[in-house]
Recover the amino acids of this structure.
């Protein structure tokens, strides 16, 4: 059981008054109250009946908000807090900016975009934007920063959600975000422990493995976690990621079949994170609905195993009443001991006290003012920061001499190839799926004549002659907006029929520029392309800055935070 002295130290730093509130609140809770308090649920809107039911009947420790307009965010937060006796933790995926909760929030930049600037200050700014805009709509807990390291270019989830593949850069940028965010009345949550990005599998649909040795893990992922923990990070999110080396280190007799994802692994949560890394804060699971853990263990066992392993909160439910019943049974049967239950709930309450939620509840200031929120969300300074981040991040990976700059005087007639996701499903971010169209419109507005490529019919012997392209077009532009998605295990270019009609086979005949707005690894599929640009995302500010660079009005300043050649020697060749 966590001691009162531990509550007064890092990362909670509670006063005597705060500790008294925690202890008195815990003492006033029934076993049922405590079990319900382990859950962090979700809301998609501000429905009054739902908020009342969650607040009064379910009584969770907190909830995560999906993206809503500013007023609806504040309304949902207000209703949840109104119906909850104990103030709630309110979380959001604030990974790229305030847009992780409010749809009107500022998008400073994807983490990899921030990483491409090479400036730690940009990560600090990301923490500020997330902290100021998140708290303005009632959020007090950011599920960020992501300090996964993007070692494997095939991983469909880490990708541009990470600061890159350089462990030192990831460490320093993660720490900068944590320190700044927590200045604004919010808790940071470093994720996804023990670290994604080694495997090529998506932990939403399969267990992912961090295959590093203990020594290598300590120098990379471990160093990143240790730095943020020492900087005072209040919470850690556990991924559905196996780390066999450390599982075997702490349990030398463990059988291969018993090596489990960190979510349910005492060796990783308690022995590695809590004891070796000396993390004293709150530990929460990643979404419990993900198959990375759910596919390995029957749900009635998995639910209470997360808390027994050392996690303090359980994120989301598959079936709310059923999962609560599973957790209750785990407690009644002794899998979750009384001490472990009290320890978990104490840490939840301590996090709330460290954020002064109990005082804000008493003073009536838990819920922000709508007018104030609108005055700080999307403020001019943050928009300028977003433009500066875009300017400093866009990376010219390969350049065919003489092709740039692109102006209507040099290349009046452009054939535009639009490459987009075809698979259905939710995207990780609230990204506008018309990035390519916006870019094409920007080219038209700049005075180019732009025709969008449409594949024609015909197989061998019946295809269009090369002259149809060379006589009609001055420049070919490929615009790729292939966003990483959960449940889509491969994010690669799907070429058009017939016979890969839009493959860049004319890049040696007609000047060709390939631009990626999302995935930085497309050179693996187009190694022949001689002018290639990574933008890391396709938000409006990025498209604006890209146009300046293409026209020669601004220099390319970004430095790739990953290997854009994917280790392929042939992709580096300048033909």
């Amino acid at each position: 059981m966590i001691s009162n002295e531990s509550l007064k130290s890092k990362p909670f730093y509670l006063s005597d008054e705060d500790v008294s509130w925690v202890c008195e609140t815990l003492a006033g809770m029934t076993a049922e109250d405590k079990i319900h308090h382990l859950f962090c649920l979700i809301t998609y809107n501000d429905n009054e009946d739902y908020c009342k039911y969650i607040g009064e009947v379910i009584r969770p420790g907190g909830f995560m908000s999906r993206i809503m307009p500013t007023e609806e965010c504040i309304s949902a937060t207000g209703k949840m807090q109104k119906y909850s006796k104990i103030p709630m933790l309110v979380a959001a995926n604030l990974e790229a900016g305030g847009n992780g909760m409010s749809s009107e929030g500022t998008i400073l930049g994807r983490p990899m975009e921030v990483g491409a600037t090479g400036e730690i200050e940009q990560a600090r700014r990301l923490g500020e934007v997330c902290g100021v805009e998140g708290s303005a709509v009632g959020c007090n807990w950011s599920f960020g920063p992501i300090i996964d390291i993007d070692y494997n270019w095939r991983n469909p989830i880490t990708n541009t959600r990470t600061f890159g593949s350089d462990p030192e850069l990831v460490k320093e940028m993660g720490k900068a975000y944590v320190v700044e965010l927590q200045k604004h009345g919010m808790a940071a949550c470093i994720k996804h422990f023990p670290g994604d990005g080694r495997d090529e599998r998506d932990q939403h649909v399969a267990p992912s493995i961090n295959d590093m040795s203990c020594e290598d893990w300590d120098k990379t992922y471990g160093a990143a976690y240790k730095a943020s923990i020492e900087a005072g990070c209040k919470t850690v999110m556990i991924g559905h990621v196996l780390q066999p080396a450390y599982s075997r280190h702490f349990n030398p007799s463990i059988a291969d079949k018993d090596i489990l994802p960190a979510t349910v692994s005492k060796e990783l949560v308690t022995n590695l994170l809590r004891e070796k890394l000396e993390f004293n804060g709150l530990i929460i699971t990643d979404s419990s609905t993900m198959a990375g853990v759910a596919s390995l263990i029957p749900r009635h066992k998995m639910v209470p195993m997360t808390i027994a392993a050392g996690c303090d909160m359980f994120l989301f439910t598959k079936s709310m009443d059923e999962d609560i019943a599973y957790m209750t049974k785990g407690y009644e049967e002794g899998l979750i001991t009384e001490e472990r239950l009290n320890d978990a709930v104490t840490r939840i309450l301590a996090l709330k006290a460290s954020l002064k939620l109990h005082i804000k509840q008493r003073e009536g200031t838990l819920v922000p003012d709508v007018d104030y929120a609108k005055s700080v969300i999307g403020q001019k300074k943050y928009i300028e920061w977003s433009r500066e981040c875009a300017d400093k991040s866009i990376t010219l990976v390969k350049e065919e001499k003489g092709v740039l700059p692109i102006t209507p005087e040099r290349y009046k007639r452009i054939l535009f190839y639009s490459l987009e996701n075809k698979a259905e499903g939710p995207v990780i971010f609230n990204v506008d799926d018309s990035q390519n169209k916006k870019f094409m419109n920007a080219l038209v507005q700049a005075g180019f004549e732009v025709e969008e490529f449409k594949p024609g019919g015909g197989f061998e012997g019946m295809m269009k002659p090369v002259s149809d392209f060379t006589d009609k077009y001055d420049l070919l532009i490929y615009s790729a907006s292939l966003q990483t998605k959960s449940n889509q295990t491969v994010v690669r270019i799907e070429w058009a029929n017939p016979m890969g009609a839009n493959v860049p086979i004319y890049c040696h005949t007609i000047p060709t520029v390939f631009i990626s707005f999302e995935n930085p690894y497309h050179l693996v599929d187009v190694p022949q392309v001689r002018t290639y640009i990574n933008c890391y995302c396709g938000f409006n500010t990025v498209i604006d800055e890209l146009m300046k660079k293409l026209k020669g009005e601004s220099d390319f300043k970004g430095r790739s935070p990953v290997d854009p050649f994917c280790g392929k020697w042939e992709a580096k060749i300048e033909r």
Q: What stands out?
A: The chain has two domains: 4-376, 394-572.
